[in-house]
Specification:
Its EC number is 3.4.21.89. This protein is an alpha+beta fold. It contains three helices and six strands. It has two domains: 1-44; 50-150, Umud Fragment, subunit A (Ribbon). 19% of the residues are buried. The mean pLDDT is 85.
Length: 181
Amino acid sequence: MENFEITMKSIRSDSVRRITAQAISMGMIIASALMMWKLWMCLSGSDSPVVVVLTGSMEPGFKRGDILFLQMNDSPIHSGEIVVFRVEGKEIPIVHRVTTVHERRNTDEINILTKGDNNLIDDSHGIYADGQLWLERSHIMGRVIGYFPYVGWATIIMTEKPVIKYLLIGALSLLVITSKE
């Protein structure tokens, strides 16, 4: 009977150790991902260094599901550049090409007009906030410096079909819990 109790204590102790090690491993993975994201934010100068194209407004250049890499710096914005911007009243950033840049004399302020390559009209007609005719530098989140085609479809699918996201999170959690080291 005494050997049985010692064996049960040993099994419980091993289980606690294994669960603790798995929790620490999961925490390290999450912490590493967050640190890499913050480092990427610092290096790119953008609060959102990676975005996914959600519509076909920039086709044929960028298609829905492409992942774009952004950088933000103080150099002047030029007509023809592709930028990602936010406007008041819309949570989702927009990716469009700069068509016109107006620099104000004796100031660093600029007015920017954008348009999707696949759109017929510029963004002052429906994309910008009501009454807004131009973007300012403060609206610009970053300039596109590179992309991976179609990789963002995973994000689009998980956003449009949340049940898939929860199944994936559940499966990954189950994998971490049941894995043996």
